[in-house]
Task: inverse folding
């Protein structure tokens, strides 16, 4: 699959942005008292470990989760999911009885779904009584909408599933499981005979799936070559193509931390600055990029756009001409 | 196996013959004459030879492992134990066929080599049945082609009334025709050699065939061949540990462990479709029969009538790419409808690692259902045939929970215990030896598994009842085939375990249940007009009506030999009648379009039915 993916150019995805938290290195030692920053870093690292199907990283680094009583619920939930992914369902279920907070309940619902306990999962995810009975128990948690929609789809409750899944993709368009939600939404539209909507959703699903496949591959490359700026640059390109310029900048800056003379990184950094409206930084970035490598192509397009937006049409034309001479084909 | 003429048996298929001209559907549109079915059948039985004494077996075992005791000493070789290259992990298929046309099921195993660059390449291994399920290794003739063999298919490709053998692997396909004495001889030029790259040359991938399926696609009564292919692999320079070079290289890992590369990241090979000419040779018609074919990493091919229109469609299980459901237009032109039918991807659109497939009517609604095996962390999927497409029943049957820790390969949907409800059998075993490392949630060696699928709509695991059961040993297996090797009426199982001895599970389940076995045969001489039934009966459907009044129910079976993974099972249809000692009616839907309704009879017999002739042979189970 990877080779096929690499053969394509990343297409922009017109979806609302919500950048995932940055991956973080798992600390070698974890003390009992953890500050907010450390917990946030662990959450991000463990989330990525689950997404890349490396539960052993969590279980190796987080054995303390089972020993300690007062642990951040999300870390507990992630650890339980790692146990589940490792076939340790009983230990996972036991951990999740520590409370009724959203992360614990959502993790329990995931495990229930994997055990074909659909009714139990739905019960965990919905309000049991009162005027809002049957609605998501944790409406502020996007995953609650996803898991409830998944349970309902498996139970054949297509209409209810559709509404919950639509809410999920609205709330979390960049969630790693968004392509799966879109797939169910396609099926739901088909089931009610709305072919046009099904087609529209299928197009979004395909783009989302392709983006996530690239995103996964790039993260694997980053892990394999952590000292190399190129995989980070690939991640930045992904975010840039998706219109997520802040996330793109984060990855470019990491690439440049690894190699300050990574010229293509400087070039992309300049265009990101332009897109974010930081014109002075963009100009300086272009100069730095050209100083790094005079043969860069895209930087001339950035310069042309900067000049155009500043009303310097002659300068813009000169930069565009230079861009074309170097083989650039995109429109300013 | 016994030589055909050894007992003076003139006719084919266990003493039964369809030699007389069959009346055409037009002359007998609804109901066939049954020429004294019971008595005539008995008179057609061949004299039985003196047989070896029955083996003392463990009757407490449900599927007692008796390979060694019965002479089945096949030892699979599949590269290194470390499994550095993907070819080494996929193992071998197994096929059952009747050599000598004596009614006994003999066994052929595919075989791998010790290494990809091994100087000496293997040949398939053939074992002859003495009629009671005891086997003797047969020496192969000089014409047997040496290659790393994988998939096997069986059927009468030259229309002479006996089973032939098709063998696939890296780098090609070989067709072996059965001669009058039961010998298998290479049919030279059977497959166009330009269909694949035979030569081993650095920098070039060879063709890698996996599962093969013989069935009649275009209704001409001649078996055609669907040949599945996997991926581009240069055996002189396989990818090791990573794909690509430099900082963008992608390491080949699974759950944090370095493993062999592929299939993801490698190039899938397109499948091929060959139209049979009727003389044992084939014509490559891939471009016309499979228009718009998108190459996947195909591991399994399941021919069956998916849409109930009487012709044979094909489900193609692809690894890490969408499955195909190829609907036949009746002329052998296939259109993929898998996505619309709901069987291309997982329930949430994920590409799965399709490994094996098998069909059967699980819920007794007269529509064929099917199962697809997948990777660990994925479910063995169960799909029920519906008015439109298929319904996914995996979660309803609890198969996600049951199969999630397994990496399953071959699969059979069969009534093993004879209670009238089908069971689901899978061979299992991980591809990565690293599965035995901590925190993987699975194991490298995995025992075969069996679940009851009825009468409650729930997969209920059948636990082995003895240490000697084939369901006990945690040894990975790949191919498997169903066949009644000792002619007791209960379908047995033969397993091609990887890097290990074969297993032969003799079925001792359901001792109190009644059974029948049906062999459906097309006419010896082809009818003038198509569609025709192939001589070996591929594509024929039997509907066995059991019970009366409120207890009446119908059991459906379709004659196909290709099922599971890289394997071929018996063409005999096995039906469990439970407590009923007889069946009330037998309806046969022949691929020719003829529908025959035959009167009921007593259980406990192997029954041969010929198109237009009714029951021509009946032999009590041993």
Result:
């Amino acid at each position: 699959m990877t080779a096929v993916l690499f053969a394509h150019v990343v297409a922009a995805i017109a979806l609302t942005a919500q950048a995932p938290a940055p991956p973080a290195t798992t600390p070698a030692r974890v003390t009992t008292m953890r500050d907010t920053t450390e917990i946030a870093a662990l959450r991000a690292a463990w989330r990525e470990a689950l997404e890349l199907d490396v539960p052993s990283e969590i279980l190796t680094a987080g054995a303390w989760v089972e020993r300690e009583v007062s642990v951040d619920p999300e870390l507990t939930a992630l650890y339980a999911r790692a146990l589940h992914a490792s076939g340790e369902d009983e230990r996972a279920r036991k951990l999740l009885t520590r409370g009724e907070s959203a992360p614990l309940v959502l993790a329990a619902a995931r495990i229930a779904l994997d055990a074909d306990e659909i009714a139990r999962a739905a019960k965990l995810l919905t309000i049991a009584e009162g005027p809002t009975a049957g609605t998501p128990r944790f409406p502020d948690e996007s995953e609650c909408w996803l898991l409830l929609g998944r349970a309902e789809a498996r139970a054949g409750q297509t209409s209810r599933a559709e509404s919950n899944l639509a809410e999920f993709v609205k709330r979390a368009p960049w969630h790693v499981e968004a392509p799966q939600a879109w797939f169910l939404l396609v099926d739901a539209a088909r089931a009610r005979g709305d072919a046009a909507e099904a087609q529209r959703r299928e197009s979004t699903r395909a783009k989302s799936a392709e983006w996530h496949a690239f995103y996964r591959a790039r993260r694997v490359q980053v892990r394999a070559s952590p000292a190399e700026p190129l995989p980070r640059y690939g991640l930045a390109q992904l975010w840039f193509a998706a219109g997520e310029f802040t996330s793109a900048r984060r990855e470019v800056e990491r690439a440049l931390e690894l190699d300050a003379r990574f010229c293509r990184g400087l070039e992309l950094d300049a265009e990101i600055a332009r897109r974010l409206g930081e014109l002075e930084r963009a100009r300086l970035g272009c100069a730095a990029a050209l100083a790094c490598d005079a043969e860069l192509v895209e930087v001339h397009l950035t310069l042309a756009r900067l000049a155009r937006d500043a009303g310097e049409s002659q300068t813009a034309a000169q930069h565009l001409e230079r861009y074309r001479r170097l083989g650039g084909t995109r429109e300013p | 196996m016994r030589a055909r003429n050894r007992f003076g048996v003139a006719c084919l298929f266990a003493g039964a013959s369809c030699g007389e001209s069959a009346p055409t559907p037009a002359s007998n549109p609804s109901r066939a004459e049954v020429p004294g079915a019971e008595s005539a059948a008995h008179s057609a039985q061949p004299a039985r030879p003196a047989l070896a004494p029955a083996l003392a077996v463990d009757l407490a075992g449900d599927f007692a492992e008796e390979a060694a005791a019965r002479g089945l000493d096949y030892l699979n070789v599949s590269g290194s134990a470390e499994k550095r290259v993907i070819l080494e992990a996929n193992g071998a298929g197994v096929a059952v066929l009747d050599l000598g046309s004596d009614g006994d099921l003999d066994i052929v195993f595919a075989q791998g080599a010790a290494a990809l660059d091994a100087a000496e390449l293997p040949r398939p291994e053939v074992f002859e049945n003495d009629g009671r399920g005891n086997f003797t290794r047969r020496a192969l003739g000089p014409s047997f082609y040496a290659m790393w063999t994988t998939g096997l298919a069986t059927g009468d490709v030259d229309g002479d009334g006996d089973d032939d053998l098709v063998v696939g692997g890296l780098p090609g396909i070989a067709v072996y025709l059965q001669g009058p004495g039961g010998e298998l001889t290479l049919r030279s030029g059977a497959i166009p050699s330009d269909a694949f790259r035979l030569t081993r040359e650095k920098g070039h991938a060879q063709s890698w065939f996996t599962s093969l399926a013989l069935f009649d696609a275009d209704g001409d009564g001649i078996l055609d061949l669907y040949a599945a292919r996997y991926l581009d692999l240069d055996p002189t320079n396989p990818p090791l540990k990573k794909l690509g070079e430099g900082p963008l290289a992608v390491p080949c890992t699974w759950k944090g462990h370095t493993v062999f590369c592929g299939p993801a990241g490698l190039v899938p090979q397109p499948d091929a479709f060959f139209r049979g000419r009727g003389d044992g040779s084939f014509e490559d018609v891939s471009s016309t029969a499979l228009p718009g074919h998108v190459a996947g990493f195909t591991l399994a091919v399941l021919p069956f009538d998916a849409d109930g229109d009487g012709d044979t469609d094909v489900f193609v299980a692809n690894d890490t790419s969408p499955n195909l459901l190829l609907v036949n237009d009746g002329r052998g032109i296939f259109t993929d409808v898998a996505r619309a039918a709901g069987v291309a991807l997982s329930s949430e659109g994920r590409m799965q690692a399709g490994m094996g497939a098998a069909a059967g009517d699980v819920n007794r609604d007269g529509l064929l259902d099917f199962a697809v095996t997948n990777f660990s962390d994925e479910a063995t999927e169960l799909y029920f045939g519906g008015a439109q497409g298929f319904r996914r029943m995996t979660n309803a049957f609890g198969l996600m929970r049951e199969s999630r820790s397994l990496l399953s390969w071959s699969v059979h949907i069969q009534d093993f215990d004879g209670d009238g409800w089908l069971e689901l059998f899978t061979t299992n075993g991980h591809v990565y030896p690293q599965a035995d490392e901590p925190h993987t949630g699975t194991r490298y060696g995995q025992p075969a598994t069996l679940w009851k699928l009825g009468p409650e709509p729930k997969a209920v695991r059948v636990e082995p009842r003895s240490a000697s059961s084939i369901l006990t040993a945690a040894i990975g297996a790949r191919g498997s085939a169903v066949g009644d090797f000792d002619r007791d009426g209960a379908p047995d199982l033969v397993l091609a375990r990887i890097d290990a001895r074969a297993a032969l599970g003799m079925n001792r389940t359901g001792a109190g249940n009644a059974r029948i076995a049906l062999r459906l045969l097309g006419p010896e001489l082809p009818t003038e007009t198509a569609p025709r039934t192939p001589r070996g009966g591929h594509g024929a459907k039997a509907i066995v009506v059991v019970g009366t009044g409120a207890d009446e129910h119908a059991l459906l079976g379709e004659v196909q030999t290709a099922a599971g993974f890289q394997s071929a099972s018996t063409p005999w249809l096995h039906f469990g009648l439970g407590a009923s000692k007889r069946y009330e009616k037998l309806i046969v839907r022949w691929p020719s379009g003829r529908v025959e309704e035959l009167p009921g009879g007593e259980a406990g017999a192997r029954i041969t039915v010929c198109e237009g002739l009714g029951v021509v042979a009946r032999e009590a189970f041993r």
Remarks:
- Residues 158 and 279 of chain B are 4 Å apart (CA to CA).
- Confidence is low (pLDDT under 50) at residues 1-15, 20-61 of chain B.
